UniProtKB/TrEMBL annotation:
EC number: 1.3.1.124
Gene Ontology biological-process annotations: fatty acid catabolic process
Domain of life: Eukaryota
Keywords, comma-separated and alphabetical: NADP, Oxidoreductase
SUPFAM superfamilies tied to this protein: NAD(P)-binding Rossmann-fold domains
Record protein name field: 2,4-dienoyl-CoA reductase [(3E)-enoyl-CoA-producing]
Alphabetized InterPro entries for the sequence: DECR2-like, NAD(P)-bd_dom_sf, SDR_fam
GO MF annotations in UniProt: 2,4-dienoyl-CoA reductase (NADPH) activity
An example Gene Ontology CC term for this record: peroxisome
Length: 279
């Protein structure tokens, strides 16, 4: 990943926690932060994957920045608190939090148990609440800070087979506003990135049926799927002084697809149902 839009070291002196940073979009954000001089702690559930990603990105960015892996489940407040302390011990006081940890699968409402719905709400919504509250308590209320929530446009288009993830992301967008208002006076900015379909991610291969991909691409105003770099670029912007007056914003990075998505059309329901989501 290379991005020359932003000055090489503009995040030097900053330290970020990225939950869900072990793979996919989260990993791309970690990569971009390291490239721009920001130390990063990756927080996630799978220790092997976290360790491998941290080692790979440390090797790639030989520029004095630190990338460390800290295992925790964002649903467990106490363990997450310990993980955050551990992260700060290794990379310094945290100035940026990216809430990227999420869980998802395709399921119709009728095929979703109460526990399945709750599981996704717990990972996405409660996890975002837990991490934000801990970052506020430990560092941001005294020193200011920057919270970036990775949301999605599922609820904006009422996408079929996604009531659990859509509800979770809608709640995250609501939280973005509440936290921006309550914490604005403490020099804390809170924003949501509503992510559209991004190519070369686990979500893309697991959640989009191959037979519908070309159809979907043609429904996107920019006629292409997003790239991980598109989301990383928005995180860089939101972490930079260029966005110093931006808070409480729900920012779509979706190629315009929220306006044109066909996934909420009833006929997609049957087409998508036949796609067995791989776990
Ligand atoms: N359809 C319907 N229900 C599903 C499901 C699916 N495809 N996948 C999981 N569930 C249900 C389970 O049956 C369970 O409900 P039950 O107790 O009533 O049977 C509930 O969700 C919890 O699942 P479980 O696997 O025990 O929870 P977990 O906390 O270990 O993991 C996920 C939850 C979402 C992370 C897991 O399903 C998963 O690994 N998903 C794929 C990876 C992923 O989400 N990647 C990131 C986003 S692309």
């Amino acid at each position: 990943m290379s991005n020359k839009t932003f000055a090489d070291n503009f995040l030097r002196g900053h330290s970020a926690i990225v939950t869900g940073g072990g793979s996919g979009i989260g990993k791309g954000i970690v990569d971009a932060y390291l490239e721009h001089g920001c130390n990063v702690a990756i927080v996630g559930r799978k220790k092997d994957r976290l360790d491998a990603t941290a080692a790979e990105l440390m090797r790639k960015h030989n520029n004095g920045t630190l990338c460390v892996a800290v295992q925790a489940d964002v649903r467990d407040y106490k363990l997450l608190s310990e993980a955050f302390d551990n992260a700060a011990k290794q990379i310094g006081r945290i100035t940026i939090l990216v809430n990227g940890a999420a869980g998802n699968f395709l399921a119709p409402i009728t095929g979703l148990s109460s526990n399945a719905f709750k599981t996704v709400m717990d990972i996405d919504t409660v996890g975002t609440f837990n991490a934000s509250k801990l970052a506020h308590e430990k560092w941001f209320k005294e020193n200011g800070g920057n919270i970036i929530n990775l949301s999605a446009n599922l609820h904006m288009t009422a996408q079929v087979l996604q009531v659990h993830a859509g509800a979770a992301k809608a709640a995250i967008d609501a939280m973005t506003g509440h936290m921006a208002v309550e914490w604005g006076g403490e020099n804390i900015r809170v924003n949501s990135i509503c992510i559209g379909p991004i190519d070369e991610t686990e979500g893309f291969s697991r959640l989009l049926p191959p037979n519908l991909i070309e159809d979907m691409r043609q429904n996107i105003p920019l006629l292409r799927f997003g790239k991980i770099q598109d989301i990383a670029n928005m995180c860089l912007y939101l972490s930079s002084p260029a966005s110093s007056y931006v808070t409480g914003a729900i920012i779509k990075v979706d190629g315009g697809s929220t306006f044109t998505s066909g996934c909420s059309m009833p006929q997609y329901m049957n087409k998508m149902k036949s796609f067995k989501s791989k776990l």
